[in-house]
Prior knowledge:
- The protein is α/β, with parallel strands linked by helices.
- The strands form five sheets. Strands 1, 2, 3, 4, 5, 18, 21, 22 and 23 form a nine-stranded mixed β-sheet that branches. It has a six-stranded parallel β-sheet with strand order 9-10-11-12-13-17.
- The protein is globular.
- It contains 19 helices and 23 strands.
- The longest helix has 17 residues, at 173-189.
- It folds into three domains: 2-54 and 528-577, Roll (Urease, subunit C, domain 1), CATH 2.30.40.10; 56-318 and 448-475 and 483-511, TIM Barrel (Alpha-Beta Barrel); 322-437, no CATH class.
Amino acid sequence: MQDYLIKSGTIIDGTGAPAYQADISIKDGLITAIGKLDVDAKQTLDASGAIVTPGWVDIHTHYDGQVTWDSEMNPSASHGVSTIVMGNCGVGFAPVAPSGHRDLIELMEGVEDIPGTALYEGMPWGAWETYPEYLDFLAGREYALDISSLVAHGAVRNYVMGARGRDNEAATDQDMAQMQALITEALNAGAVGFSTSRILGHRSTRGEPVPGTFANDAEILAIAAGALKRAGKGVFQIIPSSTLGSGAAEGGEPNSLDAEVALIQQVSEVSGRPTTFTLFQVDEWTHKWREVIDTIKAGNIKAGDSAGKVYPQVGSRPTGIVLGLKTYHSFMRKPTYLQLKHLPFEELLAAMRTPEVKAALLNETSVPHEFPGTMENGIAQAEINFDQTYVLDQTMDYEPTHAQSFAALAAAKQQNSWEFFYDYLVAADGCQNAVMFFTNYSDHNLDAVHDMLMDATTVTGLSDAGAHVSLIFDAVAPTYQLTYWGRDRTRGPILPLPHLIHRQTLKNAQLFGFHDRGSLEIGKRADINVIDFDNLKLGSMQLQHDLPAGGARFLQGASGYIATLVNGVQTRSHDQDTGARPGRLLRS
Length: 588
């Protein structure tokens, strides 16, 4: 008697091989047979007309706080994700000194736009101090998917160096020895790797850079050699200082991207471990990403069969900041707005529609926030690029033409772009959003992203699921990749489904050494999606106040997931949570 029998599906097994028709049987969490099967099962899932795939493996998330209070693990669980890696970008919550949680909360709130109130109230501070204790706490919990964690440079440096670690100060030999020991301890306890960020714009709410931003090359290489190589396990994840065209390295001066890539290759060489880093197309270097990939390819060829290879991590669409009156917008630090912001929303909207308030908000200078690293302050002070700003609604395909930009729409109406933007925000019910792209759209098309996704050197990630909860919403990337790149794109070629599915299943699982999952093979874990591909689509984006302390976040569901199984247990049925929680902590 099998636990499940998935009948008559089109199998796309995650290896990149062509699709084929077959049944799959499952028992005790494992795939027991694939083919034309005649077996008894406790539950049969009809997959006629559907595709059957492995569960998605999302390697770039920030659920470090959410995993301590939530078990459903949305938004990822509702998009077919069965395994996540959190702790990216050098921010995390362990180790933490008994009185050090405020520093880490302000860091996570500033860098990843996760409400500090939710982290203060939702997390059981005091339940751990060391990284092994943090993992042991998580190991006692149950989830709708499997979780795994990188140990974060910011938390380690803050624990060892305190305020010195947040200043432009080099670690001493004693500091580095202690950090190496803590990271080795974390890796041996089950951390799946180490993460760091070198971008100057990654700051706490108080404006302090992420500890590690100013870590010199010697410290980075010491961690690679003295921790990852010593432990013989783990992936090194890094955001280079020049990822977005500018950043900081030693002395606060930006390294060139070439220098950062050379450092990343050194990290892989001295650690002997896989290394992944963020790679975008940005306006400052519209075609530089191609040179970077070529450099990495040459280095990987030189590395031969060594585990120490480098994998640029790319996204599947432009990164875009969501702008709207109920979240973040360019007028929220204007003096007149600050006088009105506490009004009920309908009254606020009515006031903003008056000529005098509109004139004031279009002409006033924004008042700096007392905490300069808050997202509110950053958006209010940012210069909006209307050439890259578009209407954001359910029809948005993330590949609009330049004629659809706010700059072009305003020009067509012979209107100033700022006035056009303002009128858009206050129109109708005031709930409409705009999105400003700042990566991967320099040419006003996704041709560069297409080429990045086709390149065998790269891996697909950067969903940031669990983070940027009311600012950036790329957590839906697993579904978006299938619908847009596998079916709906019209402005250029689509991508083969076996290729797309391989990149978000087996390829990511192999990078992190998750050898028991990622493909549909006999003996592997039954992490499986059954998908009505023809009708798969994203839902509407809604602002929900369901975080601890009433914190707000965007959620966008999907329709078309007939079933999701994790560890051989059905967690989703026709886009609804079943309540089953078979997910557990996955240690290295």
